[in-house]
Amino acid sequence: MGLTKKVGLLSTTSVGGVAGAAALAHHLTSEDKVKTFSDKLRKDHFTLISKEEDWNSILSEYKQNKIAVGKLFKSGGNMTLEELKSSCDRIAKQDLDDSKNYSEFRRLCTVPKTIKSHLDSYGIVALGLEVGDTKDKDSWGKLKDAYVKLGKNIILNLRENLNKQDGKEGWQIFQEACKGLSEIKSTDTEFDFSFDDFEAWCTTQAVDKLKNS
């Protein structure tokens, strides 16, 4: 998901101005290059862990087997805090190889974010998610209708719950499903897929797309 960079105007009426413009252009081009795991994190708006409390929290989840690991880190919950730190530091500097390894690295080495907080970092606006929040009722209803019309079970159990209703209005069931998605953490293997689903079905931008379709 790319972000537009706003660059101030530079004077090119002198050699210095031209050189300055060229240097800035080179800097922005270099900044956009993704070579290492660390580069990819910055591009994706994640932050490497630095605080001891965050390290301990991640290690605790790892030892309880709540964070899936692959080939980058020890399985079975046998890694020590120092091993986790040194592994993250070493891998951060390595060339990015494939998305599976990157996802594993991100789960264990970055400050955890929820889908909602990650969405905010991109300037994407979620509809009202709290129970009893009716200000976006019409928008939720439109998204629900579009979802039903699509005929696919994109969000887990949502179609089934919409069919049951259980005394709730359809828009409320849809809102609850999006609330659940919003709380998924970046330590979860389903984070990326769920983020895409949330953006597509739970945001003001999603409503705008319906208006323009």
From TrEMBL:
This is Uncharacterized protein. It comes from Mycoplasma haemofelis (strain Ohio2).
